[in-house]
Design goal:
The protein is about 80% helix and about 0% strand. By secondary structure, the chain is mainly alpha-helical. It folds into two domains: about 200 residues, MFS general substrate transporter like domains (Growth Hormone, Chain: A, Up-down Bundle), CATH 1.20.1250; about 180 residues, Up-down Bundle (Growth Hormone, Chain: A). Helix 5 runs antiparallel to helix 14 and helix 12 packs antiparallel against helix 16.
């Protein structure tokens, strides 16, 4: 196993963990910060909605920018580091008892600058990792996100009684220290990169690429509906609210454990066959969760649902990087990531509308992940027929 891309992936996993944890801390303390700044709590979800809207545009913009920087300068780490410095300083200042205007300005600066830790980091890894190594490198890098998701319920339990300045300070400084080595990691990756990374950019057929992007909007909607509307009510059928923090991480545990065998399977079978298969399996698990009659059955369904969602996640990144090789990795990956942000945007918008509380929508919600994840498989099958290329 070549050590360099995998070591770099583990380093990026640490950064992803710290970045995702800052987002969890932000969401936990945002109601309190708004109250201190004199902003009515009714604006909470509107601010979160604007955050996702910003991510949609920033993911696309920074994806294109990452490609341009790579072509013009050949180095992306320094740019990411500068954005991250601004992000960490802004995050450190957020809980300092600011006025309403000051708080909103800082939140906007933080969301924009922290976007550099989304798509550009993946572009950096994908740009210098050989295709056979890419699935496992992406799986290793995604561990940070899964671990952050696993501990989020516990952070929600234990941080509410702590002064927000303490976790904001610790998370800002640790993230800044972690990201400071990015330039050296990029040089490390560049030294081991093969000459294949400098071949001319392929001409990408637009229709199949757009089908791939739309498929991931469907995938993201399925995930958002499960995590925001279905997962907790399903567990509450069998356990008390006090037990939830100990059971909710089962989804992310499945994510963490299944992405590694799926990474090996992608290397062996190709990304799109695996992606189609895990989409169908995720839909099946979502359906099984709706008919589970015991807690054990539900936990098994949610464990494998998390695992197959994780497989869809790493396969999506791998596919986006492969479709963009070489020279358009940022463009495709930015569009892919923006669809996941769009799904979160739609979920928050649905919450603001109150539709999820109507009888008709509540009846449909448990089946929406089934429908949307199954549609991913259908769209990808159509894509492969249009593309007329080996699905590897």
């Amino acid at each position: 196993m070549p050590p360099i891309p995998y070591t770099a992936a583990l380093y990026l996993a640490v950064i992803q963990f710290l970045f995702a944890s800052t987002w969890t801390i932000y969401v936990i303390y945002l109601p309190q910060l708004l109250m201190q700044a004199g902003i009515d709590s009714q604006w909470l979800r509107w601010i979160l909605l604007c955050d996702q809207l910003t991510f949609i545009f920033m993911d696309i913009g920074l994806g294109f920018a990452a490609d341009k920087v790579q072509r013009a300068v050949g180095k992306l780490g320094g740019v990411i580091l500068k954005f991250s410095l601004v992000s960490c300083v802004a995050f450190l200042a957020i809980p300092q008892g600011l006025s309403a205007t000051g708080l909103l300005v800082l939140l906007f600066i933080w969301v924009i600058s922290s976007s550099a830790l989304r798509v550009p980091l993946l572009v950096l890894l994908g740009k210098y990792t050989a295709k056979p190594q890419l699935p496992m490198a992406i799986a290793l890098q995604s561990v940070g996100l899964a671990v952050a998701g696993s501990i989020a319920p516990y952070l929600g339990m234990y941080l509410t009684t702590i002064d927000p300045r303490i976790p904001f300070f610790i998370s800002s400084i640790t993230l800044l220290l972690a990201i400071s080595g990015l330039v050296y990691v990029e040089k490390w990756l560049q030294r081991q990169a093969t000459t294949a990374t400098s071949t001319p950019s392929p001409v990408l057929p637009v229709p199949p690429v757009m089908l791939f992007i739309i498929a991931y909007l469907c995938a993201g909607i399925g995930f958002q509906v499960h995590s925001a509307f279905n997962g907790t009510p399903q567990l509450l059928q069998f356990v008390s609210k006090a037990e939830l923090p100990y059971l909710l991480p089962i989804f992310w545990i499945g994510f963490n454990l299944l992405i590694f065998p799926m990474g090996l399977l992608i290397k062996r079978l190709g990304v799109f066959p695996v992606l189609i298969g895990v989409s169908v399996l995720a839909a099946g698990c979502a359906f099984f969760a709706t008919i589970a009659t015991t807690l054990t059955q539900l936990l098994i369904a949610q464990f494998f649902m998390g695992g197959f969602w994780g497989s869809m996640f790493i396969a999506g990144i791998t596919a986006a990087l492969n479709l963009g090789k070489t020279g358009k990795e940022g463009m495709i990956l930015g569009l892919w990531s923006s669809m996941l942000a769009m799904a979160a945007f739609l979920r928050i918008g649905l919450s603001l509308s109150g539709w999820q509380e109507t009888t008709e929508i509540q009846t449909l919600l448990p089946l929406l992940p089934v429908v949307f994840w199954a549609s991913v498989a259908g769209l990808l099958i159509i894509m492969l027929r249009i593309y007329r290329q080996p699905a590897r």
